């Protein structure tokens, strides 16, 4: 059963080939079997999952089942789940049992999906390799020596290793797309404002966005249908009708204009990755699309802009973790200052501290204009580049990441090199655009992701473009040997 | 040397919304600790603020009332600092683009001169919770009921030149926000409080002196005392060769002194930046036009009308319009009795005295406006004299019923029967031949003695006008 896509599982449940309970038991067994070696879960919620599965089966026998009812899934441990530990990959929240459900969790519960557990992630979503998690590195199923990417590494791995059919991730600078690329799965970061951020622990509020991580574009479309939509509890959530994302999957790509930014194929891109991406683009030409050379001249500003904006927002967002009301509190504080300093000093890991410090610096009196304000201006320039490009093309394509998965420990001592692994994904967050990564092949046995970037709220088109590729190719069906 | 005092006030008016500025929790005062703090107020991981539209309406109303520019676009910023009663580690406020800018307000000084005070800006922000230092055995308790309560911070220009002016301005703002019904004005509960920026400079010098900020003063009396004591302190320091340190100071009302809280060097770097969780507040012309229609008659408008419509003295009109409730009460009395000047005298005189003595709000007065009007009618139609009316009023206050009930039950009806008054006068004249002699010899002052005797004999019920007239006839 574990080899099936969500679409196939949905059909199987519908036809009565198996029940949600059976399905859930099968996945729980697989988690037990394979989960530990990959270190992909922080919490497995077996009892709750079985209860939810039984409820889903009941819904089905009452004739109230939808396409996602009874389908098991995993949530990134950044989403608050009522009564369940919500750690955000941090010692700071190792003891935090969320008293409420995130909007995304609520919505997926409502359609009857079954949560198997909470996936491991970089601490507070800060990282590109899953090495910053308090719970240790997640392993890439394609090679246990390799990182899975980050920050939604656990969510990517559970799908890649087929120990959950689908999962949720969040993407602030590439945290859905980059691990999707490194693990060979399909990941979608929707337009900023498409999915409610309520209950999703904030890293950088103006960039964070939740999305599906799946085995196919079709599966991603199915779950996005349930995730997307207006939520009054998130003021940045856009009140815009949610289309049926599965409706246009089959549309032809004849005449599709694909922009190829020259900046995405320059120095720093691994040659093998470039070849795989070029081959994928060739495939799109075969499907009737037209490749158009474009330029995003301010791409070079993305990484520096991001590393001002994101840390600035995080330095403020993470202030609430102070040891006063919830989360980690140091032992025997002698006074208030000691409580703050030691709770935060002991509760946060080094990468989180680094970003808080960068952010606090960028916002401090006398530096605000030079850093934060300047970064906001650069952000505008980056958005304008895309705006101009979309006057000429329908989607933009390029590599998701400059290389395939690197080895655990390889970049962890060099933050700047690590930050560059998000060089192609970050601009999309800064502009608030939707972006996807789909499997495009392997280099030396490690997956390569093709990134597809759409115009605002054009998730339907992205999914259509991705689906057509997946109809014509089998790259998305590649599964690491040990997890077939 | 002669010193000039320079004062600017930052007034925090708690907006009278039912729920908080960014959450649905209640703002009601006095609940058990942490029973009115929801996930958003607690700053739990993942929660987001959602702006309560009512606060925008209220702030806009205030802006319109002071002739200010109500910004078509204002932005919420985060003010970052750590404190246990600040759950998120930042306060949501407005820095660069406040909702209200450049307004003004007239205050009346004691010498009758009107002075215009500039209002630099008014911005929306959330209140913090409270740290409770007692009853926790050396620890501190945190009550977050107040966290997220909406505040309008009203910042004046440094336009005031004495503590009295500062108080007059503060009272004026207080009157305005309660008129607008955007703040309950309750200073004991902290709904209306202020920080005062105080400095001194040699008279004639243009440059401002170094200022200190006096924090969280919650009564008109304390504002005056705090400023005066601070001014004294500053002048003493400068005159003995010292320098004022820019700092935040706390006023201790028990000791009547100010003391340092923190200096500029120790001040936080608040690392303000626009809150990415909230969209800019956009205000349309239609929205403003709709609010204009809901604006009540403002205190200064009402005052002018009272003078013109009722022929009141400016001072009386000023007092009567100081609160919306009092002005309404007055107009209700006029409605029930027709003599506006008499009504004004009673409302600012006898009634106000009684309310003050009994520490009662006018809205809770045991004598309603209509009942007082009924009493005044009995003065107007000569049923009772003004003096007897005071007795009737006190009885009404004690709950003895309407003016007519009291006059009836106590037998206070004025004697207007000429025959009955003549009988009394004849007796008095007969009993006081010496005084009659004196009067007839030209000592007209004795008239007062006779009036007094007659009134006394009639137990105050004789109509004084008639008594005067009849006495004159009989004595001449």
Task: List the total number of helices of chain B.
Answer: 16
Radius of gyration of chain B from CA coordinates: 29 Å
Residue share in helix of chain A: 25-40%
What's the helical proportion of residues of chain B?
40-55%
Mean pLDDT of chain A: 97
Arrangement of strands in the largest sheet of chain A:
4-6-5-10-11-9-7-8
* Tally of individual domains of chain A: 2
Q: Span from first to last CA of chain A?
A: 11 Å
Mean pLDDT of chain B: 91
Distance between the termini of chain B: 68 Å
Global structural class of chain A: alpha/beta
Number of domains of chain B: 3
Q: Which shape of chain B, going by the Cα principal axes?
A: elongated
Structure characterization notes:
The complex is a heterodimer of chains A (484) and B (476). Chain A has helices at 6-15, 20-38, 46-61, 103-110, 153-160, 177-183, 217-227, 271-286, 302-317, 336-347, 350-363, 369-392, 415-419, 426-431, 459-472, and strands at residues 41-44, 72-76, 114-119, 167-171, 186-189, 209-214, 257-261, 290-294, 395-399, 435-443, 446-454. Chain A is α/β, with parallel strands linked by helices. Chain A folds into two domains: 6-256 and 394-483, Amidase signature (AS) enzymes (Alpha-Beta Complex), CATH 3.90.1300; 300-375, no CATH class. Chain A has an eight-stranded mixed sheet. A three-stranded mixed sheet of chain A has the order 1-3-2, with helices on both faces. In chain A, strand 7 (257-261), helix 8 (271-286) and strand 8 form a beta-alpha-beta unit. The radius of gyration of chain A is 21 Å and the shape is globular. Chain B is an alpha+beta fold. Chain B is elongated. Chain B has a nine-stranded mixed sheet with strand order 2-6-7-10-1-11-12-13-14. Chain B has three domains: 3-290, no CATH class; 297-410, no CATH class; 418-475, Orthogonal Bundle (Arc Repressor Mutant, subunit A), CATH 1.10.10.410. Chain B starts with a strand and ends with a helix. The interface between A and B is large, with 45 and 29 residues.
């Amino acid at each position: 059963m574990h080899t099936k896509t969500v679409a196939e599982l949905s059909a199987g449940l519908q036809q009565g080939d198996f029940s949600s309970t059976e399905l859930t038991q099968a996945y729980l067994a697989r988690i037990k079997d394979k989960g530990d070696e990959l270190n992909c879960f922080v919490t497995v919620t077996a009892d709750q999952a079985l209860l939810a599965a039984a409820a889903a089966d009941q819904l089905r026998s009452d004739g109230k089942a939808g396409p996602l009812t009874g389908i098991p899934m995993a949530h990134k441990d950044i989403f608050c789940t009522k009564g369940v530990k919500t750690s955000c990959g941090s010692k700071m929240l190792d003891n935090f049992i969320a008293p409420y459900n995130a909007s995304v969790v609520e919505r997926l519960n409502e359609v009857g999906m079954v949560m198997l557990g909470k996936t491991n992630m970089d601490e507070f979503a800060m990282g590109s390799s899953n090495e910053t998690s308090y719970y240790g590195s997640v392993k890439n199923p394609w090679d246990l020596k390799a990182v899975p990417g980050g920050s939604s590494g656990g969510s990517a791995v559970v799908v890649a290793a087929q120990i959950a059919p689908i999962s949720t991730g969040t993407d602030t600078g590439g945290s859905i797309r980059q691990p999707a690329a490194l693990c060979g799965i399909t990941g979608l970061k929707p337009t900023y404002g498409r999915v409610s951020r309520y209950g999703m622990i904030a890293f950088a509020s103006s960039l964070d966005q939740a999305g599906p991580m799946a085995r196919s574009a079709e599966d991603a479309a199915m779950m996005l249908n349930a995730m997307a939509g207006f939520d009054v509890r998130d003021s940045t959530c856009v009140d815009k009708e949610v289309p049926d994302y599965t409706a246009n999957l089959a549309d032809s790509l004849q005449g599709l204009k694909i922009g190829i930014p020259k900046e995405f194929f320059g120095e720093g891109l691994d040659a093998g990755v470039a070849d795989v991406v070029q081959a994928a683009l060739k495939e799109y030409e075969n499907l009737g699309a037209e490749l158009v050379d474009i330029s995003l001249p301010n791409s070079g500003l993305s990484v520096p802009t991001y590393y001002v904006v994101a840390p600035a927002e995080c330095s403020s967002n993470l202030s609430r973790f102070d040891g006063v009301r919830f989360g980690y509190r140091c032992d025997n504080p002698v006074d208030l200052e000691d409580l703050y300093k030691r709770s935060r000093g002991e509760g946060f890991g080094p990468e989180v501290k680094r970003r808080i410090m960068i952010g606090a610096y960028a916002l401090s009196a006398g530096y605000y204009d030079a850093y934060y304000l300047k970064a906001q201006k650069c952000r505008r320039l980056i958005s304008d580049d895309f705006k101009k490009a979309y006057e000429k093309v329908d989607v933009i394509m390029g590599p998701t990441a400059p290389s395939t998965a690197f080895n655990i420990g390889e970049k962890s001592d060099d933050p700047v090199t690590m930050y560059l692994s998000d060089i192609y994904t970050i601009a999309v967050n800064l502009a608030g655009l939707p972006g996807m990564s789909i499997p495009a092949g392997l280099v030396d046995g490690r997956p390569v992701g093709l990134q597809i970037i759409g115009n605002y709220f054009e998730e339907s088109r992205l999914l259509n473009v991705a689906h057509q590729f997946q109809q014509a190719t089998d790259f998305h069906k590649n599964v690491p040997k040990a997890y077939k | 040397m002669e010193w000039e005092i320079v004062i600017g006030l930052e007034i925090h008016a708690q907006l009278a919304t039912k729920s908080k500025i960014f959450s649905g929790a209640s703002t009601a005062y006095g609940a058990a600790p942490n029973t009115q703090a929801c996930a958003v107020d607690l700053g739990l991981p993942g929660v987001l603020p959602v702006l309560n539209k009512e606060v925008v309406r209220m702030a806009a109303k205030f802006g319109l009332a002071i002739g200010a520019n109500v910004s078509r676009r204002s932005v919420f910023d985060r003010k970052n600092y750590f404190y246990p009663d600040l759950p998120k580690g930042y306060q949501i406020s407005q820095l660069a683009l406040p909702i209200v800018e450049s307004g003004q307000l007239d205050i009346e000084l004691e010498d009758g001169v009107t002075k215009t005070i500039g209002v630099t800006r008014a911005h929306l922000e959330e209140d913090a919770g409270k740290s409770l230092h007692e009853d926790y055995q050396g620890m501190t308790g945190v009550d977050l009921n107040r966290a997220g309560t909406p505040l309008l911070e009203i910042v004046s220009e440094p336009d005031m030149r004495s503590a009295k002016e500062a108080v007059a301005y503060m009272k004026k703002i207080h009157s305005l926000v309660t008129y607008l019904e955007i703040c309950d004005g309750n200073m004991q509960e902290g709904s209306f409080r202020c920080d005062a920026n105080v400095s001194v400079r040699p008279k004639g010098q243009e440059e401002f002196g170094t200022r200190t900020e006096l924090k969280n003063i919650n009564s008109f009396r304390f504002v005056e005392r705090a400023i005066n004591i601070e001014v004294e302190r500053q002048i003493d320091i400068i005159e003995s060769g010292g320098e004022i340190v820019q700092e935040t100071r706390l006023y201790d009302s028990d000791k009547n002194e100010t003391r340092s809280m923190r200096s500029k060097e120790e001040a936080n770097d608040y690392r303000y930046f626009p809150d990415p969780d909230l969209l800019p507040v956009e205000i349309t012309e239609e929205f403003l036009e709709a609010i204009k229609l809901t604006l009540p008659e403002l205190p200064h408008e009402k005052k002018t009308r009272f003078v013109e419509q009722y022929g009141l003295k400016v001072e009386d009109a000023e007092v009567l319009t100081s609160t919306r409730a009092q002005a309404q009460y007055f107009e209700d009395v006029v409605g029930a009795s027709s003599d506006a000047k008499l009504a004004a005298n009673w409302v600012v005189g006898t009634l106000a005295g009684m309310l003050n003595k009994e520490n009662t709000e006018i809205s809770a007065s045991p004598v309603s406006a209509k009942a007082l009007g009924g009493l005044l009618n009995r003065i107007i139609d000569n049923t009772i004299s003004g003096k007897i009316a005071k007795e009737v009023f006190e009885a009404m206050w004690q709950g003895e019923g309407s003016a007519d009930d009291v006059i009836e039950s106590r037998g206070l009806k004025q004697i207007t029967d000429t025959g009955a008054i003549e009988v009394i006068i004849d007796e008095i004249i007969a009993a006081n031949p010496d005084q009659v002699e004196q009067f007839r010899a030209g000592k007209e002052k004795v008239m007062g003695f006779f009036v007094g005797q007659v009134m006394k004999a009639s137990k105050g019920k004789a109509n004084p006008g008639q008594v005067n007239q009849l006495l004159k006839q009989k004595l001449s």
